[in-house]
User: What shape does this take?
Amino acid sequence: MDVSPSAEGQRLVFSEFDQSQLGRSMLEQSDVLVFILDQDGSIASANSVVQQRLGYEPKDLAGLDFFAALSVGVESARLARLVKAQPPLLPAHARVELRGLNGVVQSFFCTASFSPEGQGREVVLMARPAGQISSRALVTEDSAALALFQNAPHAIFLHEPALGRVLQANTLALNLACCELQDLLGRDMQELLPFLSPLSLETAPAGHGIDTSLRAHSGRLTPVSVTASRVELGGRVCFLLFVRDLSVERRAETERMASEARFKMALDRLIDGFCLLAPRRDALGGIEDFRFTYANPAAREALLIPAGETDRASLSGVFAASTAASLRDVFATVMRSGRDVNFDRIRLDQPARAAVFALHVCKHGEGVAISLRDETERAGYEQALAGKERSLSALLAHLPVGVFYVDLGAPQSPILNQSAMDLLGAGPETLDYRTCGRGLLADLAGNPLPDEQLPFNHLLQRQSAYRNDGLQLIRPGHSPVRLDISVSPVRDESGRIAAMVAVFNDITRRVALEAQLSQSQRMQALGTLAGGIAHDFNNVAQAISGSLELAKRSLDSSHSAYGNICAAQKAASRVTSLTVQLLSASKQRLEAAQTADAAPLIEETAVLLRGTIDKRIRVEVDVARDCWPAVLEPGRLQQSLLNLALNARDAIEGSGVITIKARNITFTRDCAELRVDGLHDFAFVCELQFRRGDLRRVLDDREGDGDLAL
Assistant: This one.
């Protein structure tokens, strides 16, 4: 090394420096395993790091075959072939497994190259632990020492304490100081590290980093960590200063802390619970429990963990014993397999309650991370909703009206209850709302409805509810059914029709009852009118009868007009009797029940009928001589007989016979087997509540032969 004064006179400028010598010193002081091999792979020497890493004394390794004694594996054999080749194929790189003195095998990145100072085929083999080196740090220069100095991952300054000057620096050091090599060599180290005293470098433990600041050429201070390694070069004590830039790390740490804070804030605001758990192992290394290392507020609330006690919480403390054991097995499986596990619904029993959760478990570091959502309340709502749906389904199924629901988003799957399917004669798999009722629905005149007037189509065209009670359903082989059809739209949030529901109500019986009621009202009005006329007519008949009686009294029985007057009195008496019957039939007051013979009442009713109905229809009376007296209301009995007779008259087309018969009948338990001699099969006109006993029954013949028995 040549040293000459500079122009300033006081500053020493080192024009040269033996970098190879510096590199060899670094090899001895670094954490790299260094072996010097001869041409057949035998170990000539090794540095002290070999003892630290593998446990061998360097002197004990001398003469041993490196590839036979220390290295194992396929890569070791490949490296041996490259080193022992003729000529050697160097430099060479390989990942080699090295066996330590204790038998433990460790993985190293190895680089073999010619030694620039060796004689013959001396090879320098450097090995660095595989976890501490990247591919770009592998030596590619012929000089392993120079490559180590130039490619070191830290800035390196060579400092001579006696002079306080910088003797050498690698590329990273020049970049950190922001200057060229010629500007840095000979510079006072105190200028670079103004806050670091030389004494602290000499007294610092080996490998211990000192945090300080480095002043760049521009004056900017950069936070750094300095590690000093003592070396001797040419009999002089020097220090290798390994300087690590902390600014990037500190910025990264600041960003990491800020990111963690943001992440924690986001987790704390999550609606779903989030937890981190770590295994708690027993003496044999098995997992006996999991402890919580983090739980956001939602998780603490769901799992009933008090605030501030997350670190003391565990599975066995939060859940019941059986639940904790099941979760422990699930978490252990996730840790072993690395596969996530998801539960849409899982019941987790806690000491205070039984809860239902949605749970997702994944591996996180040496433990697991879980996200959970308390579904207990929702599960209760769904269960209640399912119960209501079952109730509504049962109600819909048993409704006496037909219901047809179609969702326009899925028209191929309509919903029909049993009444609708019975009416339409088809199921949801064959019914289309656009053609529902085609060929079946008709107006009251029997004209089939065109497609555009079918219920659903009519609603879609008019965009409003549809109602029509003037339709009939005509199915082949079935009696026409009178229908009241209503179709209502179901609209979405935008007001568009999203679905439709139709109700088919069979009103055939109702229409018939309404017709009967109308007929009854007409008959009542007719009876009232007839009663009024009969009353007036009776007054006239009474006047005539009185006048005849006076005339009769003024004549002798031998008078020629006496007989005519008597005949006129009989006719007037007959008229009076008829008007009394009409008044009795039309009166609306309640009569007291009395025990009477029904035969005279039946005969009077027959006389009244003969004078009012079509002369082509004969009215006959057949009352048994031994008929028992009956408890009855005379007016009501005559009214009932009149109603039945008028219905019979309407049922007879043209001529026929209406026969009113009265017989004694003994009631048995089975009324359906009741028979009356002389009558055809009959059906009861009305159902009355009687105990077992004797009853005179009003019967209606269903033979359809033109003769009706009452």
The chain has 21 helices and 33 strands. Residues 507-589 form one domain.
